[in-house]
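Here is the promised in-class demo. Please do not try to memorize the tokens; focus on the logic of going from shape to residues.
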């Protein structure tokens, strides 16, 4: 499996990430112009809190006080306490832990795609190309750059889900069923949102395998058993989510909120012109050599299979377009729970898996064609490749001269598109030796996707995302700050976590409705639509952040009821009950003269007794207790099933 070729490809991928700035203490950002990353804002504080809870306080990380005036921690899927690899945070410091997990999952993605491709009878070279094309897929790397580590983790298990399904139908041994359950559980625990699309893809794949399997009825009952075992393994995620869901803001997400991050028709140009700026949710680029090989690979299938593949692609596109594509609107009306998943464009992740595989099929066919020394010429195919090569050339020149895009976009299109098209034309006309074809294509894929990687991701050390907040944090600690309100996100979440400062607000999609309403009411910021940032910032770009909520009318009495002792903002706030304490690094620090001190013995969650908040403290204690029980049960069950799987996998086979 880890052949010389695969080892070189993985080392090349690692070298690209190192060039992007990968270091033990650095964390990924979505390019040089980006200010924020989910890895810094969410995942680093989560790993830090998990580590400190267990190693320093000797307790299960059930509740965290540093965000949203106190919030569930273990019940929040984003914090990954139910995902076994997350517990490596007990061994490694938070930043190193996250980087190791990212590299580990990229390796998992590579191996999973390679095994699946090989099991589909692709040549080793073709399987390697599919594996590296998936591992360095712009959509995967883009999510890594944005700090969407949970998305990366889930995508790493996606090809393993498909491979496990194939193993089940081909061999059907107990170890294969256990593998399917473990992989499915890991995928769901990694990211429920991605698992929706992965499980739908797996269901379609399983249906096709059922259809072709001679004794499909034999697999039916074990499939039910695997599903039941998977449910047991994910109880640590599902039970807390179900008991908290009536109280969350997700329950009130509207179609307009959920469909906000959809593809627009203009984003389809990203198939030809790589997006080196913008949000990862709109990134559609696969790479020129990958796309051309995938088109060739699709042509190697039967007419019926091609038609089904194209129909699937059209459905994916229509869903990804959200309200503009009609399909998403129809489905969310029929199945309202789909609104909870938001971001229709993430269905594109299915194509991010399938297109690299199809590229592997394209290279597989080309190698066989050259090997056969056939005299057949494909006139239409040659003309098509010539047209695509010309399109790449024209598109690259236009991007460089007319479209006002970054020069890297035009150069990528011009060079990689033209070289890929030319190489395919040479191969189709048998003008290149077989021994050179696969290596040259592998080099092209690594160069193209590697260059794209360097444009959409970079690592930054704590001197950039933590150290600038130190003077502000230390000044607040020196003044014995209790809870802190920031109308313009002046005290960043990772800084608050590092110094154990308690925020009245935060950044997280897992929000208790009544607490969110209390924060926005006290801050005078109306909540007109769903927002992962509370208070909502209501700005169109990061450049406007320093003016966010400047006109809001703050209610210091309400803030005081919630024990908000200090406010921090990038602008002056004129209020008779706010006392200016200091001015540090362009941030104004105010004392709230209406702050009400908390009792000495403060029970979780420590919310105000002067307001009606749901759920109440007694209910929360019960839910926290149940969360801890099912979390420990799932982790123990995971360990037991893994040990059983290993014993079966390593057991000597009979001759």
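The designed amino acids, position by position:
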């Amino acid at each position: 499996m880890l052949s010389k070729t695969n080892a070189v490809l993985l080392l090349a991928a690692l070298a690209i990430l190192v060039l992007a700035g990968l270091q033990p203490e650095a964390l990924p950002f979505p390019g040089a112009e980006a200010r924020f990353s989910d890895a810094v804002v969410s995942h680093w504080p989560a790993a830090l809190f998990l580590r400190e809870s267990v190693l320093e306080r000797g307790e299960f990380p059930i509740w965290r006080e540093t965000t949203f005036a106190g919030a569930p921690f273990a019940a929040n899927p984003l914090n990954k306490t139910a995902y076994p690899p997350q517990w490596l945070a007990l061994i490694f410091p938070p930043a190193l832990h996250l980087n190791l997990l990212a590299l580990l999952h990229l390796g998992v993605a590579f191996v999973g795609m390679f095994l699946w491709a090989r099991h589909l009878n692709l040549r080793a070279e073709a399987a390697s190309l599919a594996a590296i094309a998936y591992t360095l897929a712009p959509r995967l790397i883009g999510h890594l750059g944005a700090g969407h580590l949970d998305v990366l983790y889930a995508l790493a298990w996606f090809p393993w889900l498909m491979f496990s399904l194939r193993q089940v139908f081909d061999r059907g041994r107990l170890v294969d069923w256990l593998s399917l359950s473990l992989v499915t559980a890991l995928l769901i625990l990694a990211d429920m949102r991605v698992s929706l699309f992965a499980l739908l893809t797996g269901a379609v794949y399983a249906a096709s395998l059922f259809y072709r399997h001679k004794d499909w009825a034999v697999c039916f009952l074990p499939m039910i058993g695997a599903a039941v075992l998977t449910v047991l393994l994910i109880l640590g995620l599902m039970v807390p989510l179900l008991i908290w869901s009536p109280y969350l803001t997700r329950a009130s997400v509207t179609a307009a909120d959920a469909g906000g991050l959809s593809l627009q028709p203009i984003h389809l140009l990203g198939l030809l012109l790589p997006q080196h700026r913008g949000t990862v949710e709109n990134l559609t680029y696969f790479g020129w050599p990958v796309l051309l090989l995938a088109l060739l690979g699709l042509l190697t299938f039967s007419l019926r299979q091609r038609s089904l593949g194209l129909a699937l692609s059209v459905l994916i596109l229509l869903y990804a377009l959200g309200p503009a594509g009609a399909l998403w609107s129809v489905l969310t009306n029929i199945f309202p729970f789909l609104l909870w998943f938001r971001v229709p464009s993430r269905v594109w992740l299915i194509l991010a898996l399938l297109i690299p595989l199809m590229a592997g099929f394209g290279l597989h066919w080309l190698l066989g064609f050259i090997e056969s020394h056939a005299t057949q010429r494909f006139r239409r195919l040659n003309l098509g490749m010539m047209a695509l090569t010309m399109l790449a050339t024209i598109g690259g020149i236009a991007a460089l001269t007319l479209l006002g895009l970054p020069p890297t976009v035009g150069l990528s299109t011009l060079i990689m598109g033209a070289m890929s098209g030319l190489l395919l034309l040479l191969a189709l006309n048998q003008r290149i030796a077989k021994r050179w074809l696969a290596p040259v294509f592998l080099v092209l894929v690594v160069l193209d996707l590697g260059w794209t990687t360097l444009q959409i991701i970079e690592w930054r050390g704590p001197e950039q995302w933590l150290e600038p907040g130190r003077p502000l944090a230390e000044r607040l600690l020196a003044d014995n700050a209790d809870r802190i309100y920031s109308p313009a996100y002046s005290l960043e979440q990772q800084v608050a976590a590092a110094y154990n400062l308690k925020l009245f607000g935060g950044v997280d999609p897992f929000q208790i409705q009544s607490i969110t309403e209390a924060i926005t009411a006290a801050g005078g910021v109306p909540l007109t639509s769903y927002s992962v940032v509370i208070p909502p910032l209501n700005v169109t770009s990061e450049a406007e952040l320093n003016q966010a909520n400047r006109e809001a009318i703050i209610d210091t009495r309400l803030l005081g009821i919630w024990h908000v002792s200090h406010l921090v903002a990038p602008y002056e706030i004129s209020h008779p009950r706010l006392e200016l304490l200091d001015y540090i690094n362009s941030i104004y620090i105010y004392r709230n003269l209406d702050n009400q001190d908390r009792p000495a013995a403060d029970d979780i969650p420590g919310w105000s007794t002067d307001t009606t908040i749901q759920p109440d403290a007694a209910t929360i204690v019960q839910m926290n207790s149940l969360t801890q029980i099912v979390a420990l049960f799932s982790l123990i069950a995971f360990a037991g099933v893994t040990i059983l799987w290993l014993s079966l996998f390593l057991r000597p086979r009979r001759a």
